[in-house]
Specification:
The complex is a heterodimer.
Chain A lengths: L1 H29 L7 H19 L2 H25 L4 H19 L25 H6 L3 H19 L1 H11 L1 H6 L4 H27 L11 H11 L4 H23 L6 H5 L1 H15 L1 H7 L13
Helix pairs in contact in A: 1-6, 1-9, 1-10, 1-11, 2-3, 2-4, 2-9, 2-10, 3-4, 3-9, 6-7, 10-11, 10-13, 11-13
Chain B lengths: L1 E7 L5 H25 L4 H10 L5 H26 L7 H12 L1 H5 L8 H27 L3 H21 L34 H19 L1 H11 L1 H6 L4 H28 L10 H11 L4 H25 L5 H21 E7 L16
Antiparallel strand pairs in B: 1-2
Classes of the chains: A mainly alpha, B mainly alpha.
Main location (chain A): membrane
Keywords (chain A): Cell membrane, Membrane, Transmembrane, Transmembrane helix
Subcellular location (chain A): Cell membrane
Chain lengths: ~300, ~375
């Protein structure tokens, strides 16, 4: 029983950064913007979070720094694609490349240093309940943020007027503009929200998952988060399910490696990436589902006429 | 409070089309100077070490050519993809697979010598790269799967596959346990161009030939016209009877083959055996090269040399000033950012306006007819 609980806990820890980054990108894409810079914003969040935590000794300041770092870095993307109407695919790619380089440079002196870890929740009486206690009341704070964030985004997008407006912009920015909606302003805020989420996801990696700084420590998670959004056909609760499936794959292959299953470890390590491809193929085979949910103006630059 | 406003030009500005890479390079230099200053280094001496010293001697120019060759080879292939609005960003993986498949001959038949070895290896390399690129192309045409994500995921898979090969079945049994294959025999090594002057090998010639060939393809042949039409207006392309699916395969196979050629050339030229890591991210840097070169093969040759210099400069400042060689990646990322930003000037005029300012004139219609 204890082993099962432990495995479930590690799956939740592996799924949390994927979930947060993907939920952020979901909002961005719902507003009609495709930001391929998730990996770059995430790694910037990771290095910023680790650095601030390491320098101040407080993982909580690290957490805030991670969020701020992601948000500020995404602003670069926003100015380029929204104010200067650059190609979103290319700009997102360059954000990722820049983030990987910049984080490597900023983190040079952090390599090998012990980091600060965010403490797990510990409520006397509740956390010690057998089995469910640790699952419900004993996880890291970002886990709870991720669940709350998913619920909040779900409520925001589908139950509020502003959420409806945001989705309408994603489906037709010209119509939204004609109705007098501030398309660019909405998109700026969405992109920054996505950046903050990606930064938080990166902070989870360097403040909870493995509290240290390793170059390229995101290891493609930002890209997997992007794939999750497609997999979830732009629905928050499906992102949640997808993130946990991927968390399970990630943990499963680690356990398989630890148990010495007679399969090359490299094959096991490549499973999350192969699973992403397989899942993308499966979901895109269902053309109707994809067509119905893809924000219609996703990735198209918009220049308002006055 | 000020904000930017874009005003569509009646036609694309030839002036900015030509100037934009240079403006971008200038802005990168300015941003780089700020960065060096923040790091506590005198920007002028840093720039001398970064951009001048690595190319001040003949043998260093050869090193530049070695770094530029894979970048140019990959980027000219990618330029065809990007022109057609097809996003192959997995060139790094196709590079690795080209290197692996091309290495089959020297690894398994080390006693096979003679003039046939190299051409066969290069052919195998191109086939390997093209075959790996065919996967995202097939998934896109067959199931409509997003090629950006699939081609990228396959990069990680390729890296792990290479790692497994050189640590496992392909490891040199006499290699003292080092994760590498046997040293290729002399017939499997790409010859140097001028052995007395430096290390540059035939890979650079391949790159130049590929650039000229793609330039002819794009500007003088029907296929190039097809690429441009499908890229700028898929609808118009359909009316003209150009198949989008065929174009996806064409672009992916072509760019994959060139990336594969770059991979086997790198392994057989600069390295001489397979190792766990054979590329400092050439496949990704080539994306920057393609854009900096305006997706024009001849521009790409120049851009490839510039980006190759950023690699050499990164190594130089690391050894001279103790700055991380990641500074190269930062320069490359900034360069791409500025190029994309400057490209806006080709299609738009930028006006700064106050938020409260009244409307001055009737603005021309901005919507693009796509």
């Amino acid at each position: 029983m204890d082993i099962t609980v432990n495995i479930l806990l590690t799956i939740a820890t592996a799924a949390t950064p994927l979930l947060i980054a993907a939920i952020g990108e979901l909002v961005v894409e719902r507003s009609g913007v495709l930001n391929l810079g998730v990996e770059g914003m995430m790694i910037m969040g990771a290095v910023g979070g680790f650095g601030a935590g390491y320098l101040t000794g407080s993982p909580w300041i690290g957490l805030l720094a991670a969020v701020a770092m992601g948000a500020v870095f995404s602003l670069l993307f926003a100015v380029m694609t929204l104010s200067l109407a650059t190609n979103q695919v290319a700009t997102g790619l360059s954000l990722t490349l820049l983030g990987l380089g910049l984080s490597g440079m900023m983190g040079t002196s952090f390599v090998g240093q012990p980091g600060e870890r965010l403490p797990n929740l510990d409520i006397p009486g509740l956390t010690s309940i057998p089995v469910v206690g640790r699952l419900l009341f004993g996880q890291d704070p970002i886990f709870y943020i991720s669940i709350a964030l998913t619920a909040a985004v779900m409520w925001f997008l589908f139950k509020t007027r502003t959420g409806l407006t945001l989705r309408s912009i994603g489906d037709s920015h010209t119509s939204a503009h004609a109705l007098g909606i501030k398309v660019i302003r909405y998109r700026y805020l969405s992109v920054i929200f996505g950046g903050a989420c990606a930064g938080l996801a990166g902070g989870h990696l360097s403040l909870v998952y493995t509290p240290q700084w390793v170059e390229n420590m995101t290891a493609g998670r930002g890209w997997i988060a992007l794939a999750l959004v497609v997999f979830a056909s732009w629905r928050p609760w499906r992102v949640l399910a997808g993130a946990y499936i991927f968390g399970a794959v990630w943990i499963g292959q680690l356990h398989a490696q630890a148990f010495g299953i007679p399969v090359p470890s490299q094959l096991l390590s490549s499973l999350p990436y192969l699973a992403t491809v397989v899942v993308l193929v499966l979901i895109s085979r269902n053309k109707r589902l994809t067509m119905m949910n893809t924000p219609a103006s996703l990735g198209q630059p918009f220049v308002p006429d006055r | 409070m000020m904000r930017l406003e874009l005003v569509k030009r009646p036609q694309r500005s030839m002036l900015f089309s030509a100037l934009s890479p240079f403006i971008a390079f200038g802005l990168t230099i300015v941003a780089g100077a700020i960065m060096f200053a923040l790091l506590g280094v005198n920007p002028l001496s840093a720039f001398r070490i970064y951009f001048i010293e690595p190319i001040s001697q003949v043998w260093q120019l050869h090193e530049l050519a070695i770094k530029a060759a894979p970048l140019i080879l990959i980027a000219v292939g990618l330029s065809v993809c990007f022109k057609a609005n097809i996003w192959n960003i997995g060139a790094e993986g196709q590079f690795i697979l080209g290197a692996i498949v091309g290495s089959i001959i020297p690894v398994f038949f080390p006693q096979f010598e003679g003039p046939l070895v190299l051409p066969l290896m290069l052919l195998f390399g191109m086939v390997g790269g093209a075959a790996y690129a065919a996967i995202p192309a097939l998934l896109k045409t067959r199931f409509g799967t997003n090629e950006i994500l699939t081609s990228l995921m396959l990069v990680y898979v390729a890296q792990l596959f290479l790692d497994w090969l050189v640590r496992g079945p392909w490891r040199d049994p006499q290699g003292h346990g080092f994760p590498q294959t046997i040293q290729f025999n002399d017939s499997a090594i790409l010859p140097e161009l001028m052995p007395d002057a430096g290390r540059a090998n035939w890979g650079f010639v391949f790159a130049l030939v590929a650039a000229v060939a793609i330039w002819i393809l794009m500007s003088r042949m029907l296929k190039g016209f097809e690429v441009r039409v499908l890229g700028s207006s898929p609808r118009a392309g359909r009316f003209a009877g150009f198949g989008l699916n065929r174009m996806v395969f064409f672009a992916f196979l072509l760019s994959g083959a060139l990336a594969g050629l770059a991979g086997i050339s790198e392994v057989s030229g600069a390295i001489g055996q397979l190792q766990p890591v054979i590329s400092p991210g050439y496949g990704f840097t080539a994306i920057i090269v393609a854009f900096l070169g305006r997706l024009n093969p001849l521009g790409i040759v120049a851009a490839g040399l510039v980006l190759a210099l950023t690699y050499l400069g990164g190594e130089a400042v690391q050894s001279a000033l103790g700055i991380s060689d990641k500074v190269a990646r930062v320069f490359q990322g900034m360069l791409l950012f500025f190029v994309l930003g400057c490209d806006t000037l080709i299609h738009y005029r930028i006006r700064l306006i106050g938020l409260a300012a009244p409307k001055l004139e009737a603005a021309p219609k901005l919507k693009e007819a796509r």
